[in-house]
Please model this.
Amino acid sequence: MVAKESTVKNKMVAKESTVKNKMVAKESTVKNKKKVVIIGAGIAGLAAGYYFSQNPEYEVFVVERQDYVGGLARGFDYKGFHFDFGPHKIYTILQGILEEMDKVTPLLKVKKKNRIYLRNNYFEFPLKMSQIMTKMPVIAARAMLDIAGKLISRRPDDSYENYLTNRFGRTLYNLSFKGYAEKVWNTEAGNLDRELAIRRVAVSNIFQLIKGAVFGDSSKFSAQFFHYPPHGMKQIAEDLVKNIEKNGGQVLLETEISEINVTDKKINYVKIKKVKLKPDYVISTIYLDYLLGIVKDNGSEYSRAREATLNLTYRPVSIIYIILNKERAMEDCWVFFPEKEFLFQRVSEQKAFSKLTCPPGKTGLMVETTKEPTKENIDLIFKQLEEAGILKSRKEIQEYIVKTGPRVYPVYLRGFLEPLNAVLNYCDSIKGLYTIGRPGRFNYNNTDHSWDMALRTYEHIISGENPENWNKLKERFDSYRIVD
Model:
């Protein structure tokens, strides 16, 4: 059967979270405490709430309009499975962040194995020139000629396409990067901004790739191990909630903020349902157009910023969860499928992250696609999974369910930084307002980065809010790189 996102609620065993809304936000009766309103209960929002709730000087309200926590790193239970909304691993090169996460939820250390499927062959990922030379010698020869040519002639680094062809050559770019980008972001790769390549492609150029293969140092662009919560990513979110509530903070689910009233760059009040709360700080982790949609400000800068949010768009992602009556389906944690003829871009196996997430004798595949999950497309996806050898036969599928996230991948079109900076500069101009997290900064980042944003923002506020320090933190946030 196919269970769509809109029909899952109240009809299936799967529940997005065991955390329940216990109360409606009320005007605080606690004297002499600074009030912090955190909008959004994703990892960034919950981590911020976790840190502020440990400080006796602050009263914490985490407000979430959904009936679950975790945001883009949410999970759900289904017939004994603990599924993530798409694969989430924890690997970080940020000092101290792994230890901070491990304090909240003791993490497993998992050996990583992932590959990429190209020209009917599986390759280790990141790609190794030795494998390309063995399985595709003509491609390898063309790639080396490309690189030799790029040492003499380069294009301006003004797009995703030019940035990567300058560093990997046209042949490797077409082989590994072009189709994937156009499939996921639904536009010609030349329309995408160079920032997407800078933030998303951890390998800086082909020479770093070769150096990593020769000398064995690939930690900056490929992890040998990653960490993971035993019962799925939702365990971290729920453990954060438990800590916040134990410390006296409030996590309010199915609760919306209807207004953030601003005058002369100051927040007058936040309206939570019918209650007006006067906060000292508002930390927003929600989408920027949602945030500016609830801000009430008569200033001209606000009007320009809100109009600029129209240029910040997202791509949806659907996850097809395939339940199989077998112990394991793949030898990998996940496999990339960059070629455009495949309707999906990645396949992962939940059990590869933790055995505790699946019932004994069963496993679950997660197939990510930006295509509309129609029956016709799903049937073709199953056929392609058979062709790639991941499914032996469609008959081994016990059942499948589909979940769709309407706003998952930020679209970095060329020139996106101008409207983004207009929005973020306006938010920065409001005293006591901070925007963090993936939606909150339109930032292509991972869970460890969102946690780091929360911790650094907390430290910034309690240390006196030096503006120069916040500028440095924003540079830090923009420097995050995703390591596969």
Residues 1-29, 209-219 have pLDDT under 50 and may be disordered. The two ends are 33 Å apart (CA to CA).
